[in-house]
Specification:
alpha/beta; single chain; 15 helices; binds ligand BES; about 500 residues; eight-stranded mixed sheet; six-stranded mixed sheet
């Protein structure tokens, strides 16, 4: 069994043996090179399409085994959907994923994919390749017996009219894929393997790519007064870590963009313990930290012309004799006191100190935090949108647009004075939960108390980080959500002369 995948690009004519793939537009017939391939078989396209119900919609396929007069084992005709130059880029990523699904289903080892659309832009070809690679990903390192008919190594050659400009476009896009896959693997890893120290070790290896990585221990964090983060960590045998990653690809004087991630390697709920059902999902409660780490990797791989900081708070939320309790009052690094009313509202405590530390140290031009923060975000938006909180309309619009473009979608949520009341405490400056109502919003309000004049966006990824049904571009539990949308946001709005 092997998941090895090699992706190549070659100019026409280059169809080799193995599987040949051609595309047909929705309600159309083979055209151009696809037509000349099909015509060699001597078969009646319309009749075959009708008999198998093929109309060229995405996901439709005609599978001809041992096609006559063609020097290949198999001819796959795939539906391309409706043509249109304004197609969202993510439609091409989906096509690439769908292609990979068909190649795997037909047990293809070697494929030539013919793409001779006139004017096909390199970045669209790059999306196809990216989609194929994303769909190919599996997390099966813990299986000692491979599934029957498991995958075989595969090589795919995209055969194009022109290959000019393709190398850069593909390398750039694959840098994002690598970041997404890194985030997926971090989220898929079980918590017995991936604790705070182990996660920090993986982040530290990014120094090989030119990222400066520092790691704070609990003693360092105590010196900074991070009483909120440390309260969460105190019930675990495994010590907390705060990892600071810096990529300096921009103007040396430019203030950085900062990305802050919730990294709860496992969330039992603590003394306010969670019910048993699905608690295993809480190995993924470090999805924010995983996305931030994957994003830093992407920026370094594609040598982004931007200054970026990634800060991740890594803790385990355990129930133990040393755990923090409901009723405890802790002091955050900012000096604010917090009454703990629910030890399961731990992510916001981790972020309170990580946000404060980030803005005090770096004065970033924008902070974006990512966190699997509230079950309420999952209830409100399911797996298809992350919840976006941002008071600046222009920044919110840009993040929204990046979500539409990449398929990692966001939906904006409100702030409002009425919600603020829900987190007022009888005993301290603020309490850490506002109860069941508007759970995602009160969590965002809590975080806002720890933002001090720095532009800020909060993205609640509780619904999008893991657990979605398999999609065109992902067959795995973890999604790697966040890397692609933030990379797109940085590319479109953060890179360039100003930075
Ligand atoms: N990690 C959870 C949120 C979560 C739930 C993420 C399901 C992904 C899937 C978070 O720490 C949590 O427990 N939040 C509580 C907050 C409540 C106690 C105010 C929640 O959502 O119930
Ligand atoms: Mn929790
Ligand atoms: Zn949590």
């Amino acid at each position: 069994m092997s998941h090895d995948l090699s992706l190549d690009f070659a100019p026409l004519p280059a169809a080799k043996a193995g599987t040949i793939v051609i595309y047909v537009e929705q309600d159309g017939v083979p055209e151009g090179e696809a037509k000349s391939v099909w015509d060699k078989t001597g078969k009646d396209f319309a009749a075959i399409a009708k008999s198998v119900g093929f109309s060229g919609k995405p996901g439709h396929m005609i599978d001809l085994v041992a096609p006559p007069n063609l020097a290949c084992d198999r001819l796959l005709v795939l539906g391309r959907g409706k043509n249109g130059a304004l197609d969202a880029l993510s439609a091409w990523t989906d096509r690439g994923g769908s292609l990979m699904a068909k190649l795997e289903a037909t047990r293809t080892r070697s494929a030539s994919v013919i793409l001779d659309e006139p004017g096909l832009e390199p970045r669209r070809v790059a999306e196809l390749a990216a989609g194929a690679k994303l769909r190919r990903y599996r997390f099966d390192k813990y299986r000692t017996t491979p599934p029957e008919n498991g995958p075989e190594a595969m090589s795919v050659t995209f055969v194009l009219k022109e290959t000019g400009g393709l190398d850069d476009a593909v390398a750039d896009r694959m840098a994002v894929v690598e970041g997404t896959l890194m985030a997926r693997t971090l989220v898929n890893e079980p918590a017995n393997v991936l604790g705070p120290v182990e996660f920090a070790g993986i982040a530290n290896r990014l120094s090989d790519l030119g990222i400066t990585v520092e790691t704070l221990t609990p003693e360092d964090m105590a010196d900074h007064g991070m009483g909120a983060l440390l309260a969460v960590a105190q019930g675990s045998e495994r010590p907390a870590r705060l990892v600071v990653m810096q990529w300096r690809g921009g103007n040396p004087d430019a203030a950085p963009l900062a990305f802050i991630g919730k990294g709860v390697v496992f969330d039992t709920g603590g003394i306010s313990i969670k019910p048993a059902a699905n608690m295993e999902d809480m190995k993924g409660d470090m999805g924010g930290a995983a996305a931030v780490t994957g994003l830093m990797k992407t920026l370094a791989l594609r040598k982004a012309k931007v200054n970026a900081v990634g800060v991740i708070g890594l803790v385990e939320n355990m129930a133990d004799g040393r755990s923090y309790r409901p009723g405890d009052i802790v002091t955050a690094m900012s000096g604010k006191t917090i009454e703990i009313v629910n030890t399961d509202a731990e992510g916001r405590l981790v972020l309170a100190d990580a946000l404060w530390y980030t803005q005090e140290r770096f004065r970033p031009r924008l902070m974006v935090d990512l966190a699997t923060l509230t079950g309420a975000a999952l209830v409100a938006l399911g797996h298809d949108h992350a919840a976006l909180f941002c008071e600046d309309d222009a920044t919110a619009d840009k993040l929204f647009a990046a979500g539409q473009e990449t398929g990692e979608k966001l939906w904006r949520m409100p702030f409002g004075q009425a919600y603020e009341k829900l987190i007022e405490s009888r005993f301290a400056d603020i309490k850490n939960s506002g109860g069941r109502k508007a759970g995602s919003i009160t969590a965002a309000h809590f975080l806002r108390h720890f933002v001090n004049g720095v532009p800020w966006a909060h993205i609640d990824i509780a619904g999008t980080a893991f657990g979605a049904n398999p999609s065109e571009t992902n067959a795995s539990w973890a999604t790697g959500y966040g890397v692609a949308v933030l990379d797109r946001f940085i590319r479109d709005h953060g890179e360039g002369e100003r930075t």
